[in-house]
Amino acid sequence: MSEKKIPQKHTEKRPGRYNPEEKSKELIQNVDKICKMRGISRYTLAKGADISTSTIHSLLAGKTKPYMYTVYKLCNALDIPISDLLIEPCDETIENISKEEQELLMLYRKCTPSKRHLLKVYLQMLTQFQEKF
């Protein structure tokens, strides 16, 4: 009789699998980056999300992991979709762009899909416009 392999814990690196520890840390780091970019204090974030400042401090210090309920409250307080906190790393991260580009990106992300479409059309028109000096 052959023995069955017992799967290793969720920490095993397999394609398509998430490391919950790592992903929770990244999510909270993204919250912190957005707050720093916008000049939002931990106290202001806690008040806006209607959660305690000790919860914010514990999350940012990595002492606790966020519940989805808390993540939704943080997103509401920051006025961002949850996808902004879950973005996978890419070659050009938000740290590698200028403050002005960061501000434009944050404004874009606050727009509805119809406003995003209009903005795209407007930017395409602007790039075709030839300025005369």
Automatic annotation (TrEMBL):
<feature type="domain" description="HTH cro/C1-type">
    <location>
        <begin position="31"/>
        <end position="85"/>
    </location>
</feature>
<dbReference type="InterPro" id="IPR010982">
    <property type="entry name" value="Lambda_DNA-bd_dom_sf"/>
</dbReference>
<dbReference type="Pfam" id="PF13443">
    <property type="entry name" value="HTH_26"/>
</dbReference>
<dbReference type="InterPro" id="IPR001387">
    <property type="entry name" value="Cro/C1-type_HTH"/>
</dbReference>
<protein>
    <submittedName>
        <fullName>Helix-turn-helix transcriptional regulator</fullName>
    </submittedName>
</protein>
<feature type="region of interest" description="Disordered">
    <location>
        <begin position="1"/>
        <end position="24"/>
    </location>
</feature>
